[in-house]
Amino acid sequence: MPQFDTHFLTPLLFWSAVSFAILLFLLKRYAFPAITEILDARERVITENLAKAERARQEAERLLAEYQAKLKAAQQEATAMIDQARKQAQQVAEDNQQRVKQDTDRMLATAREEMARERVRVSKELKDQAVELVIAASERILKRSLTDADQKRLVKEAIDQLN
Fold it and tell me: Which DSSP letter does residue 147 get?
């Protein structure tokens, strides 16, 4: 095998080392800076993306907290509106009860006044009928017809006796 022959091996090793050194020099001079630049750019992009993601997460947390605060405020406002509506409904009910009570009192007062007027009317009617009965009884007793003056006198006496 010719590769392992010392006569071929030494120059082969030498030229392999020289080729490797030239390759290493060229890679270090041209390829590694480009590769390093690409890797640095990739690292910057990843770092920027991580920073953006962190800012987006913080913004989302802030928006969530703001939303929760608004939701709580809306719930409190709704509770306040419900309480106010209950108070208004209770006030309306109380007003209606008061109005019904006033109407009832007014109707009772009207009925009492009507009863008093009716009592006075009935009392007057009874007095008139009593007067007529007295006059009729007096005529029978006297067996004659009374004059207007006699009737008025007898009526006045009957009224005086009734009071």
Answer: P
Block residue for tokens 């009593």: 130
pTM recorded for the entire structure? 0.42
Token digits of residue 11: 């120059």
Q: Counting Cβ atoms within 10 Å, is residue 139 exposed (0-12), middle (13-18) or buried (19+)?
A: middle
Identify whether the C-beta of residue 131 lies closer than 8 Å to the C-beta of residue 161. Answer: no
Residue 142 corresponds to which tokens in the numbers above?
Answer: 């006297």
Place of tokens 């969530």: 64
User: Quick one: how far is CA 93 from the chain centroid?
Assistant: 19
Cα(19)–Cα(80) distance, rounded to whole angstroms? 87
Distance in angstroms (rounded) separating the CA atoms of residues 3 and 6: 8
pLDDT in tens, 74-110: 999 999 999 999 999 999 999 999 999 999 999 999 9
pLDDT tens across 22-79, in order?
999 998 999 899 999 999 999 999 999 999 999 999 999 999 999 999 999 999 999 9
